[in-house]
Design brief:
The chain is α/β, with parallel strands linked by helices and 567 residues long. The chain is built from 23 helices and 19 strands.
């Protein structure tokens, strides 16, 4: 016969505080069936037992009339100690007046003496323990464990409860965060960062209570505050900024605030703080003001961006996103030769019309949706390269953008190789552009990914070279095949000697690395001649063509084929 595995459970600890031995024995016999029972002769002994760290008590049964320290004094001390307040107390008394007084002092229930019904005693103890444990679970989930403030979900739920009875009171939504907080964790350690957040949370609780306001830590170093309208919130700013100055012993670690005054009750609660956050983000890097107020101009921009976010998937599904192609020409010989193209996304919105990439690319880079755009572009480009190859018998290599979000995608290499396989292409026909800023942000990860892609045969272009702050520091370790000169330098090189020297420097770096330099943004013959004189090999810009849809790119291919036949 199989031996049954014994199931054991940990018993909860109960403390019986009574100076009468008989009472302790009666209660002990009733409760010891379900609980581990300990005893104290008076409230002073009880406090000593409760102060030990080796046990966690789930319930206290407390007599009121005892020598040394009675039950009433114990209840008063309990109200001043947070850890004791979390342990429920059932008082034991035969006096009705004492019952009322003890309940006012925080007792959870009472048991009448004498204990003539053991099942009633046991049932009351079980009910109170269960009730307090449920409350404790709620308390743990409603509070952020680092700051001690509400979690975001509970914060919004409490606002809904407040709004049920006070919708006529003007309220403000406030969002603040600490600029460059990730550097605090990197340089000072996560423990230091957590202590800082805890200090801010504690200070906020003390400051907001008299204002009848509540707060939460929404994410990392971002805090939300819901408050009755105030003329200003300098007190909160001063407190938080003061904590930062004290922690770092410097005053250049900055807090930025966004404020939406007199929130619109016709808008969802979450949107109140989205708009305050938009104002907060607008304040990024602006040292002239601590608070930025959400206004009509910001609202128009916010609604525009929300429309773009909402409509992105339908734009992909309905082909409102269109890939344009800008040709690149090799200018080393007497006649420029078509060498490749760059894929550039355009959005023709059914109601908003043409939307500039400058409006939606930074937005989607900020919220992570850029990956959807990139995946769409990659697919379209692979199909287009295949189509031109079948139609003309030649390959026009096309470069596509790879964002920093894509770099973090563990499936990046698999996605790209699948695209090539599905369209019968080789990696040499499909070039990848990575902006210099992506190298600066997560260099180790990016270099690892780029090395693997180059092993597969992909050619890597570094885009916007020279615009970042650490180009020369990184250049010795960058695994790249082509260097693209930032167009702002090209456009200004004939107006500004410094820009001219920077272009010469980048071309010189490309020569040293034995890789081609691509100049984008070329608009005039004079610019082309200057770049050619420097030794720049490849040109891209309006001088040859603006970005065009696939059908308008065909003449460039036909002209190149005609030139080759003539040669």
């Amino acid at each position: 016969m199989k031996k049954l595995r014994q199931i054991t459970t940990v018993k909860r600890h109960v403390l019986i505080v009574d100076d009468e031995v008989v009472n302790r024995e009666i209660l002990g016999n009733i409760l010891s069936v379900n609980y581990e029972v300990e005893y104290a002769d008076n409230a002073k002994e009880a406090l000593a037992a409760l102060s030990r760290q080796d046990k966690r008590f789930s319930l206290i049964l407390l007599d009121l009339l005892m020598p040394v320290m009675d039950g009433f004094e114990f209840l008063k001390k309990r109200e001043t100690t947070e850890t004791l307040k979390r342990i429920p107390v059932i008082v034991m008394t035969s006096e009705k007046e004492s019952e009322v007084r003890s309940l006012k002092l925080g007792a959870a229930d009472f048991i009448a003496k004498p204990f003539d019904m053991p099942e009633v005693v046991l049932a009351r103890c079980e009910r109170i323990i269960e009730l307090f444990e449920d409350q404790d679970i709620i308390r743990q989930t409603e509070r952020d464990h680092i700051s001690g403030l509400y979690t975001k979900d509970y914060f919004f739920e409490y606002i809904r409860q407040i709004e049920l009875w006070s919708r006529d009171i003007p309220r403000d939504a406030i969002v603040f965060d600490i600029e460059q907080f990730h550097l605090v964790n990197e340089f000072c350690g996560r423990d230091f960062g957590d202590r800082l957040l805890a200090e801010i949370g504690s200070a906020l609780k003390n400051e907001l209570a008299p204002m009848n306001a509540i707060a939460c830590r929404a994410d990392a170093d971002t805090f939300y505050i819901f408050a009755t309208h105030q003329e200003n919130y300098d007190n909160i700013r001063n407190i938080v900024q003061g904590i930062l100055t004290e922690f770092f012993e410097v005053n250049h670690i900055r807090v930025r605030f966004g404020l939406w005054e007199n929130v619109d009750r016709n808008v969802e609660i979450e949107a109140w703080f989205d708009r305050a956050k938009a104002a907060c983000d607008k304040n990024r890097g602006d040292l002239t003001q601590a608070f930025t107020r959400y206004n009509n101009e910001m609202h128009s921009r916010y609604m525009f961006e929300e429309t773009l976010i909402r409509d992105l998937q339908s734009a992909i599904d309905n082909k409102n996103l269109v890939v344009y192609y800008q040709p690149k020409f090799n200018i080393e010989g007497d006649i420029p030769r078509l060498t490749s193209a760059e894929a550039l996304i355009r959005w023709i919105h059914p109601t908003l019309g043409f939307i500039s990439p400058g409006d939606f690319i930074p937005l989607f880079e900020g919220n992570g949706l850029i990956q959807k755009v990139d995946n769409f572009v990659w697919n379209e480009v692979a199909k287009q390269i295949r189509k031109w190859k079948d139609e003309f018998g030649v390959t026009v290599p096309v470069s596509v953008n790879v964002s920093r979000i894509d770099i973090l995608d563990p499936e990046l290499e698999t996605k790209l190789m699948r695209l090539l396989e599905e369209n019968g292409l080789s990696p040499e026909e499909y070039m990848l552009e990575v902006t210099e800023s992506a190298y600066c942000e997560n260099m180790e990860r990016l270099i690892e990914v780029i090395k693997n892609l180059r092993k597969k045969g992909f050619r890597i272009e570094m885009d916007d070279f020279g615009a970042g702050y650490s180009s020369l520091n990184m250049i010795t370790t960058l695994p790249i095949d082509i260097l693209k000169i930032d167009m702002s330098f090209v456009r200004n090189m004939e107006k500004d000697e410094r820009n001219l020297k920077l272009v010469e420097l980048v071309v010189g770096i490309a020569k040293f690395l034995k890789i081609p330099a691509v100049a984008e943004g070329v608009e005039t013959q004079s610019q082309l001649d200057t770049l050619k004189g420097m030794g720049c090999q490849i040109i891209q810009g309006y001088f040859f063509s603006k970005p065009v849809p696939p059908k308008d790119f065909v003449p460039f291919i036909e002209k190149e084929l005609e030139r080759r036949r003539g040669a």
